[in-house]
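Running co-folding for pyridoxal-5'-phosphate.
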Amino acid sequence: MQTGRSSTGNHVTSSLGPTDGARYDERFASRAAGIVSSAMRDLMALSERPDIISLAGGFPDTESFPRAIWDEVWASVTADHIASSLQYGPTEGLSELRERICEVMAHEGASARPDDIIVTTGGQQAIDLSIRTFVDPGDTVLAEGPTYPGAVPSFTTYEADVHHIPLDEDGLRVDLVEERLAHLAAAGIRPKLLYTIPNFHNPAGVTMSLERRHRLIDIAHRHELLIVEDNPYGQIRFEGEPLPTLWELDGGEGWVVYLSTFSKILAPGMRVGWVAAPQPVLRKMNLGKQAADLCSSTLAQRFVIEYMRRHDWREHVARLNDVYRGRRDAMLRALEEELPAEATWLTPAGGLFVWATLPDFVDTRDLLAQAIKNQVAFVPGRGAFVPPRGEGDPDRGAHSLRLNFSGVPEPVISEGVARLGRTVASWVELHRALGGA
Ligand SMILES: Cc1ncc(COP(=O)(O)O)c(C=O)c1O
C-alpha cells in the first residue's frame, strides 16, 4: 500500500500507487488533453454551500412540483410497470414517450412523427450525439458567441474549430453567418454545422426574430448548411407569441436537427431529452447512443409517460412561467438598483438567464473570486466561448456574466444581486484608486 496526495492536497491511500496523474499523462488521448470543463459545472459544488447564493446554475424551480402528483405518478409506475421500468429498453426510447414528445413539439407548432425521434439522456446527450456524429478533429463549426457553456466541452471533446458568430437583441446575426460562409469558402472550408439556440438563448436571453429565422433557413438551403437547433426554452415564455421553429421552417428538407429536453418543462433530475432528425442522421445517432449508454433510463422515461398521461403538462409549464416571470422581474429591479450605470443587459422574454456586461476594466473571472468571498456566485462570460485554438481573442466574454433567476426565490435573488453589486462597486473603487478612469 502506497500513499499519495490527492489534487485537494489531502493524503490518500491507494493500492495503485501515487495518484498525482503523471503516470497517466502519456496515456491520455490527445482529445482528452484539449477538453475544457463547462464553466457552470465547475461552479456546481457552490450550489451545495448554504452560505452562498448561487445565481450560477441553470436550475429550474423543482420546489414547485406538487408532492401529491409525484406520489400518484410513482404509484402508477409501481402498480403497472415495475418490471418493464427496471428493464433495458430500446436505444431510441419507449415508443409511447416518442409519441408524447411529438405532442410537446406540436405545442410549438413543430410537426414530427415518433420515428423521427430518439430519446436521449437529457438535452446534453443530444448535443454530444450531434457533435460526435458530424465532427472530425479540426472540422469547422459555427455557433453563437456567446454559446451554451455546456456545449463547450462537447465542442472541445470532438476537437471542433468553433467560429463564434455574434448575436444581438434579435438573436444570431444571420447576416454575419452568410459573410462567414463566404470567407470560409474562399479558404476552401465548409462548416460541418451551425449550432444555435433560437429561443431565450442560454446565456444571452435573446430570441431570434422571425425574419432572421426565414433568412437562416434560406441560407441553410442555398449553402447546404446543417443546422442543429437546440430548443430547451421555447415553452419557458413570459410574454409574446411563439415563433416557428427552424425545424418547421425547414419544411422537411432535412437541413435541421432539432434538440430539446424535459429538464425545463418537467425536471432535470429525470435526464430525459430528445433529438428529432432525418432518418440517415438518426441511424448514426442511434449507433452513437448504443456506444454511450445503450438506452436512457427506462424508469425515468416511464415516469414522464405516466405524468403526461395523467396531468396536463401545459398547466405545469404555465405555473412555472408565472413563477419565473416574477423572479425575472425581481432580478431586473435588483440589477437596476445595484449595478453601476455603465453596466448593460437585455430583458429576456423567457428562459432562465440574464446576460449582463460590466465596464471593460472588470474581468468577471477575477470578479468571481471576490464575489464568492461575498457569498454570491455567477457564471463568468468566458465560459460561454470556446477558447481559440490559434489566433482569436482569448478574452471574449471577459466583461460579461450569466445570472440565473429561476432557481431561487425573489428575496434571495434581491440579496444575491445586492451582494454582486457590492462586489462590483468595490472593484470599481479599487480601479479608480489605482488611477483608472
Ligand atoms: C441550451 C441548452 N441545451 C442543453 C441543455 C442541457 O439540457 P439537459 O439538462 O436536459 O441535459 C441546457 C441546460 O441548461 C441548455 O441550456
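Result summary
The first helix runs from residue 22 to 25.
The chain has two domains: 29-64+315-433, 87-310.
Job closed.
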